[in-house]
């Protein structure tokens, strides 16, 4: 990670502080990806961020506090990317919006394993205080899927928890692959994830048709 | 000569104590979390001597892992049995297995919370137990599902993951006793992808 020049550099204290905080967040994200939550220490975060331990405590009171901040930053990145991709085809049909959102989601994770690790794996494993945030993060993607979704094919009954189950199922599949060290290959799962997301709403043949048109 | 009180075989008493220790950690971690649960709490709840715990287990983590393993084996066993008893139609087996899972969770709220919530974050080894159990459910669903459907290879991974997610939310809301009410919608969720694609699907 790029450190700031030592000694006199004419940078404002606010700039230095903000830069340090951002580096610590990136440092924690890297450390998590390398050794997991339990083995990530303040020292290791400091090393990865090139920030001293005493400077760490100027920004965060604990590893958890840094984790929470890093998690929020990470989730916000994912949300922005996915929301943006959906918004770009806001006038298009529901299936197209879902497709664009899922492509953006999967490709973002595939290109940034550390981001995939913190959001999909460690968020669920960092303890009780983290669980609410993980749940809120997962839930925040549900409206993107639900909004404008067609009724089930053939007038079948729509299970109330369907949208949550679809989002939770995608998070589970991706998380397990990241845990298995396959984050870089998540893009191979793109057709599967897309078909799974469309299936309950469009039925098997229509979902297949849209996926094959990729 | 008859004994004045029934003498239970030593092995039976030892197994009962082991069981009580595992039940205690399940209850305590459900009530206050794994981290906050101390050895002293466990032996007090189980009504055993500290030495008994250490005769049986190396420490808190071993108790926790043994309790998770025991609960998971019981659950997986019941689900497998229910599936096998349900007959030839795959959707009947799925329904029976899912119903057995929901009943088992509802009957053992502390164990449900321990395995589906606390295990994930308590220690790396307990997290691995969760992953392994989820994987076994995925494999079970895959063995049971119709073949050559043309559906994604990962369909059972996402379906099992979605079901696990809904159930973990139910547990966190403290409503695990009502888990069996979820059967119709979870079943619909798990069956609908196969509708119209597998020849054996009805």
Question: Overview of this structure, please?
Answer:
The complex is a heterodimer of chains A (214) and B (202). Chain A has 214 residues and is mainly α. Chain A has a domain at 70-212. Helix content of chain A is 71%, strand content 0%. In chain A, helix 9 runs antiparallel to helix 10. Chain A is elongated, with a radius of gyration of 20 Å. Chain B has 202 residues and is mainly α. Chain B has helices at 10-32, 39-46, 50-56, 60-85, 90-107, 109-122, 124-144, 155-172, 183-191. In chain B, helix 6 (109-122) crosses helix 7 (124-144). In chain B, 43% of the residues are buried. The chains are: A mainly alpha (214), B mainly alpha (202). Chain A binds chain B through residues 36, 38, 124-128, 130-131, 135, 138, 152, 156-157, 159-162, 164-173, 176, 179, 189, 191-193, 195-196, 199-200, 203-205, 208, and chain B through 33, 35, 117, 120-121, 123-124, 127, 131, 134-135, 149-155, 157-166, 169, 172, 182, 184-186, 188-189, 192-197.
β-sheet strand percentage of chain A = under 5%
Which regions of chain A contain 5 or more consecutive residues with pLDDT less than 50?
A: none
* Percent helix of chain A: over 70%
- Coarse structural class of chain A: mainly alpha
Class derived from helix and strand content of chain B: mainly alpha
Which tags fit this structure?
heterodimer; A: 214 residues; mainly alpha; B: 202 residues; Tetracycline Repressor, domain 2; disordered C terminus
Short description:
The complex is a heterodimer of chains A (214) and B (202). Chain A is mostly helical. Chain A is built from eleven helices and no strands.
């Amino acid at each position: 990670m790029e450190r700031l020049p030592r000694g006199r550099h004419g940078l404002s204290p606010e700039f230095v502080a903000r830069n340090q905080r951002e580096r610590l967040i990136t440092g924690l994200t890297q450390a998590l990806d390398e050794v997991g939550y339990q083995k990530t220490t303040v020292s290791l975060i400091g090393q990865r961020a090139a920030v001293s331990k005493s400077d760490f405590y100027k920004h965060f009171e604990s590893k958890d506090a840094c984790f929470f901040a890093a998690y929020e930053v990470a989730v916000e990145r994912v949300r922005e990317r996915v929301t943006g991709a959906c918004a770009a085809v806001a006038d298009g049909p529901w299936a197209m919006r879902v497709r664009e959102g899922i492509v953006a989601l999967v490709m973002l994770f595939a290109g940034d394993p550390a981001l995939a690790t913190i959001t999909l794996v460690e968020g669920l494993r960092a303890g009780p205080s983290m669980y609410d945030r993980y749940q809120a993060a997962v839930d925040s993607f549900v409206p993107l899927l639900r909004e404008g979704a067609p009724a089930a094919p053939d007038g079948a009954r729509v299970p109330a928890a369907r949208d949550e189950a679809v989002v939770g199922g995608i998070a589970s599949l991706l998380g397990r692959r990241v845990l298995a060290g396959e984050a870089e290959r998540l893009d191979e799962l793109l057709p599967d994830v897309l078909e799974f997301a469309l299936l309950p709403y469009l039925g098997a043949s229509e979902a297949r048709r849209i996926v094959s048109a990729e | 000569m008859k004994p004045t009180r029934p003498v239970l075989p030593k092995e039976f008493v030892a197994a009962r104590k082991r069981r009580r220790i595992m039940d205690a950690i399940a209850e305590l971690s459900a009530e206050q979390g794994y981290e906050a649960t101390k050895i002293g709490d466990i032996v007090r709840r189980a009504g055993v001597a500290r030495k008994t715990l250490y005769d049986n287990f190396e420490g808190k983590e071993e108790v926790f892992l043994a309790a998770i393993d025991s609960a998971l084996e019981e659950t997986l066993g019941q689900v497998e049995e229910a599936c096998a008893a349900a007959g030839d139609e795959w959707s009947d087996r799925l329904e029976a297995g899912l119903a057995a899972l929901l009943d088992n969770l509802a009957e053992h709220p502390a164990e449900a919370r321990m395995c589906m919530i606390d295990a994930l974050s308590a220690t790396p080894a307990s997290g691995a137990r969760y992953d392994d159990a989820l994987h076994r459910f995925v494999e079970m669903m895959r063995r049971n599902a119709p073949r050559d459907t043309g559906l994604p290879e990962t369909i059972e991974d996402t379906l099992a993951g979605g079901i696990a997610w809904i159930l973990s939310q139910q547990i966190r809301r403290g409503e695990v006793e009502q888990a069996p009410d979820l059967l119709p919608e979870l079943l619909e969720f798990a069956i609908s992808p196969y509708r119209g694609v597998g020849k054996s699907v009805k």
